[in-house]
Structures are given as structure tokens and as C-alpha cells.
Write a structure and sequence with these properties.
The protein has 116 residues and is an alpha/beta fold. The chain is built from five helices and five strands, in the order βββαβααβαα.
């Protein structure tokens, strides 16, 4: 698993690109912003971006979603909670979120993600 920290947004929130190096499938965690540089990085890896994962709904963790969805319109949005959002995207449960929520604000927990 390849994990890249891409600080984003006005507060420099920890946004991560997580890519499975075998399948090349990837997800973005907490896009506090979205820039051309971030898009270029994703494109340069050849990653197949499938999901945006939100660990929580604070503005500094979600402000990049509109621009990211413009660049990758087919990416699915997942958020902590239960049920589905208004677009039919399934919300991830607390159990599924156990590791992802740890990495958004604390880079030292990235190793937990790679063990799951």
C-alpha cells in the first residue's frame, strides 16, 4: 500500500492518497482543498481513484470535494455514519472507519491502515 500525505486547504489538513500498488485502486482521505498540483500527482501515479473518504464533516476536511469531483466525477464519496446520503452513496460504519479516522489528523497512525 502506497500512502502519500498531501496537506491541503487553508489549514494544511492532512489529506492522503492511498493506493494499492497491486490493483492501482486508490482513495483520497479528507480533501481539505484540491489543487492542480494534487491532481497532477494523482494522474502521474496512474492511480484509479475510486473513493473520497471523509473521517468527519469539519469544513477544513471537506472543502476540496467540489473541485476533486470536477476532476474525477465518477469517484464515490464515503463518510462516517450509517445508511446512505442523498446521492445513494453508502456511508461507512464506525467499524469500517476505525483506522481511516485515525490517519486524518495523526500521521503516526498510518501504519495501522497498512496492517488491516
Amino acid at each position: 500500500m502506497q500512502i502519500t500525505n498531501m496537506p491541503s486547504g487553508p489549514l494544511g489538513v492532512n489529506t492522503y492518497l492511498v493506493t494499492d500498488e497491486y490493483t492501482n485502486k486508490a482513495f483520497i482521505v479528507d480533501p481539505g482543498g484540491w489543487t492542480q498540483k494534487m491532481k497532477d500527482h494523482v494522474m502521474s501515479t496512474g492511480a484509479e481513484l475510486e473513493y473520497i473518504i471523509l473521517t468527519h464533516g469539519h469544513a477544513d476536511h471537506i472543502m476540496g470535494i467540489p473541485a476533486l469531483k470536477e476532476d474525477f466525477p465518477d469517484v464515490n464519496l464515503k463518510a462516517v455514519g450509517h445508511g446512505s446520503d442523498s446521492d445513494g452513496n453508502r456511508l461507512i460504519s464506525e467499524e469500517e472507519n476505525r483506522t481511516v479516522s485515525s490517519i486524518a489528523c495523526s500521521p503516526e497512525f498510518i501504519s495501522d491502515l497498512t496492517r488491516d
